[in-house]
Amino acid sequence: MKSILLIAACIVAMGFAVASCRFAPSPKLGDTVASSVFEPADTGLINKKTRAKVADTTIVADSVGLYYIGSGSTKQFIQLVSYPSRRDTTVYGKTLHIKVKGSAEINNVVRVKYYLLNGKDSLVKEVEQVKFS
Length: 133
Hints:
It is a single chain. By secondary structure, the chain is an alpha+beta fold. The protein has a domain at about 65-130. The protein has two helices and five strands, in the order ααβββββ. It has a five-stranded mixed β-barrel. A hairpin with a 6-residue loop joins β2 and β3 (about 90-100). The chain is rod-shaped.
């Protein structure tokens, strides 16, 4: 008799447990998506791989003392772009009178001589066009 009452009590308790879960409030999220479902792609690895590829393919030794004349050159300043990679750009001031040997047009390959001003600053004093034969 005690076992029948115990079994009946267990059945009633299970019924309350199931009913209580069924009547639990559920949040209505609407059109929102959980952040665990929507995560942007990890671009760190992608960028690392592409940088490694670019670094492997673009190892170029620049020639010392040879530059392209950049399009940012003015009457007061000359823009020098590294030859042959065109990766590095420097801007120097010009002296009052610059000696030019050959052509100093934009995109020409030139060799440059500097004038040291105040022991710190450099000015361009001579530009010589380099012709490759």
